[in-house]
Each structure stands twice: as structure tokens, then as C-alpha cells.
């Protein structure tokens, strides 16, 4: 037998970590379901009356969707709405005594904090994996070709079948919807941020779809240097870094370039991607607006006219 040299403090820390993961698994697992549709995936309960979140690619195009609850009960599900541009879908089941999860504020996440994934990889129900938030502000291209911004990177292991399951924090609150992994890499997995998922879910519940204004920008939330913030009198210490601009898009026609920093749109301060997404509503399509950017640390104003994208 090999004797491990672990002092009492180390054992106590390990116990705290184990206790946290165990408590979260017990809290979250009853809300996680297995979904059989186009393929096999996961989902989780977000309202007591039967609304469940999952990935669009799990249910998109499926003629029949079936959900298996934590207790083994199998139920038919209806697709309420589907947003392939963010890889989020909303389905609904008719079942009593459902335990709903709650969203955390994903904009408050910190790199290194605990992240726990629950799902059904390869049909192994309620599999729990734990890791950390590896990075924030990633971009991920969906099957539609659109880049989803502000994606969470984690090393909590994901496998086929985990798609659509929750990524939660140490309090059991949803910080993201697990959506992808890079194969054959190890420990590089991604989740759609909770703030994005919450916004999409609200729209799908009330309207069944999302209609957006379109700029043609892929960006990520980044901090701004304090000197830059003070010099330009900016209300936020962050903005949107322009990763790419689509050809012939409203942003391209307005003169936006890769490397620009968007700090305001339609006179509203922009502190991150979520702020920009919230302003790009259906009503803004065809309505011109000023967009304030920083280019080479100089403030500029561009006139842009968003178009409508389904």
C-alpha cells in the first residue's frame, strides 16, 4: 500500500470540495432529463410547469421528441421554440412536481471558479463531471454558420449526450448550457452562457421564435484599460472587441473593422456582447443608429443601419 503524504489542511480542503460537488449533484440531478429526438442529448427543467431547455441541435428537425425524467418516467415533449443561431431550444412536457433550476448571472463569472456539468453522455444517465471555468468570452460557430459570442470554456468533461445539459456553479445555479467539445482534445468544452440562454428562453416562451436585428459582427467582451476609460469618460470599463465583420453586412457598410472596440450603440453604453444583443431587437431593423467605437484608442462614431434576420 502506498502512503500518501497529505496533511490535515489538505484533507479538509478536499473534503470541502467533495462536499460541494456532492451537494450540487444531489440538488441538480432531479432536474436533468434525457432527450431522445434527432439524436440523444440532455436537457433540464427551468419552470415548474414543464418548460425545459436543451440545445437546438438535439431537437432540431425531429418528428418526435421523448423525455426521460430522473425517476425513469418517459414522456412525450413538444418543441416550443428553436433558435439555431444560439443553439438553444425550448421544449415542454406535462408532468407534476417538476424541480426547476435557476439561472446565475453569467457576466459575474470568474476564470478558475468551480463548474459542474450534469448530463447523459452515451446514455449514462445523470453523469456528473466537475472542473473549472477555463476561459470567458469565447466565440463558437453553430451549424447555421453564426458565431455565438460570450461562450464559456470549461474543463468539466463533456461527451456526446451531454449536449443541452446544465453547467452549474457551486450553488447549483445554471451558468451555461453545455453545447460542444473539441475532439480529440481533452478538457476543452463549451457552454452557452446563462445570460444568453435566459434571454433566448424568454423570447421563445412568449413568441416561439426570435427575430433579430443583424449587424454582421462577431465579437467578445473584453476589459478596457483604465486610462482609456478615464480619457474618454466611458461609463463602462469593458466593451465589445470586433473579432470579424461579415462581407456586405451593415457593419461592413458602416466601416467597422476587425480590432475595433464597440463602446456604445444608439446612445446606450455597451459593456459586453449581452448589452449589444439586447439592443438588436426586431424593432431596430431598418432604423439607423450611431455606433461609438474605439479605433487605435481614438473615439469615433459610425452610422449603421441594422437589417432583419430571422
Please tell me about this protein's structure.
By secondary structure, the chain is α+β, with helices and mostly antiparallel strands. The protein has 2 domains: 1-207, Thrombin, subunit H (Beta Barrel), CATH 2.40.10; 212-309, Pdz3 Domain, CATH 2.30.42.10. The protein is 19% helix and 39% strand. The protein is built from 6 helices and 20 strands. The chain has helices spanning 8-28, 56-59, 194-207, 226-232, 250-254, 273-279; strands at residues 32-36, 40-45, 51-54, 65-68, 74-83, 88-92, 114-119, 127-141, 147-154, 166-168, 174-181, 189-193, 212-214, 217-223, 238-245, 261-265, 268-269, 289-295, 298-304, 307-309.
Taking pLDDT < 50 over at least 5 consecutive residues as the criterion, the unreliable ranges are none
What value does the Rg take, in angstroms?
21 Å
Taken in chain order, the helices and strands follow as HEEEHEEEEEEEEEHEEHEHEEHEEE
Percent in helix: 10-25%
Tell me the strand order in the biggest sheet: 1-2-3-6-5-4
CATH architecture grouping of the largest domain = Beta Barrel
Strand content: 35-45%
Q: Which terms summarize this structure?
A:
310 residues; alpha+beta; Thrombin, subunit H; Pdz3 Domain; 6-stranded antiparallel β-barrel; 20 strands
In short:
With 310 residues, this protein is α+β, with helices and mostly antiparallel strands.
How is the secondary structure organized here?
Blueprint lengths: L7 H21 L3 E5 L3 E6 L5 E4 L1 H4 L5 E4 L5 E10 L4 E5 L21 E6 L7 E15 L5 E8 L11 E3 L5 E8 L7 E5 H14 L4 E3 L2 E7 L2 H7 L5 E8 L4 H5 L6 E5 L2 E2 L3 H7 L9 E7 L2 E7 L2 E3 L1
Antiparallel strand pairs: 1-2, 1-4, 2-3, 3-6, 4-5, 5-6, 7-8, 7-10, 8-9, 9-12, 10-11, 11-12, 13-20, 14-15, 15-16, 16-17, 16-18, 18-19
Amino acid at each position: 500500500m502506498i502512503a500518501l503524504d497529505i496533511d490535515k489542511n489538505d484533507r479538509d480542503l478536499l473534503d470541502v470540495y467533495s462536499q460541494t460537488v456532492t451537494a450540487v449533484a444531489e440538488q441538480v440531478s432531479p432536474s436533468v432529463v434525457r432527450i431522445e429526438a434527432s439524436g440523444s442529448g440532455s436537457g433540464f427543467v427551468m419552470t415548474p410547469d414543464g418548460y425545459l431547455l436543451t440545445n437546438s441541435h438535439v431537437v432540431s428537425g425531429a418528428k418526435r421528441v421523448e423525455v426521460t425524467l430522473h425517476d425513469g418516467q418517459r414522456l412525450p415533449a413538444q418543441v416550443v421554440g428553436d433558435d439555431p443561431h444560439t443553439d438553444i431550444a425550448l421544449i415542454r412536457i406535462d408532468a407534476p412536481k417538476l424541480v426547476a433550476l435557476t439561472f446565475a448571472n453569467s457576466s459575474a463569472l470568474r476564470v478558475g471558479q468551480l463548474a459542474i456539468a450534469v448530463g447523459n453522455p452515451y446514455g449514462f444517465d445523470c453523469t456528473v463531471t466537475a472542473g473549472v471555468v477555463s476561459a470567458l468570452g469565447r466565440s463558437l460557430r453553430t451549424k447555421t454558420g453564426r458565431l455565438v459570442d460570450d461562450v464559456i470554456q470549461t474543463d468539466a468533461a463533456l461527451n456526446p449526450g451531454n449536449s443541452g445539459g446544465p453547467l452549474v456553479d457551486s450553488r447549483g445555479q445554471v451558468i451555461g448550457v453545455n453545447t460542444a467539445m473539441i475532439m480529440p482534445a481533452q478538457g476543452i468544452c463549451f457552454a452557452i452562457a446563462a445570460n444568453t440562454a435566459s434571454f433566448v428562453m424568454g423570447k421563445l416562451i412568449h413568441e416561439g421564435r426570435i427575430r433579430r436585428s443583424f449587424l454582421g459582427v462577431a465579437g467578445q467582451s473584453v476589459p478596457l484599460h483604465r486610462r482609456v476609460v478615464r480619457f474618454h469618460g466611458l461609463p463602462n470599463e469593458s466593451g465589445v472587441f470586433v473579432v470579424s465583420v461579415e462581407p456586405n453586412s451593415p457593419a461592413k457598410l458602416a466601416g467597422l473593422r476587425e480590432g475595433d472596440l464597440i463602446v456604445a450603440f444608439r446612445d446606450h453604453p455597451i459593456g459586453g456582447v449581452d448589452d449589444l444583443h439586447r439592443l438588436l431587437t426586431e424593432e431596430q431593423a431598418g432604423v439607423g443608429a450611431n455606433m461609438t467605437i474605439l479605433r487605435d484608442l481614438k473615439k469615433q462614431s459610425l452610422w449603421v443601419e441594422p437589417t432583419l434576420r430571422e
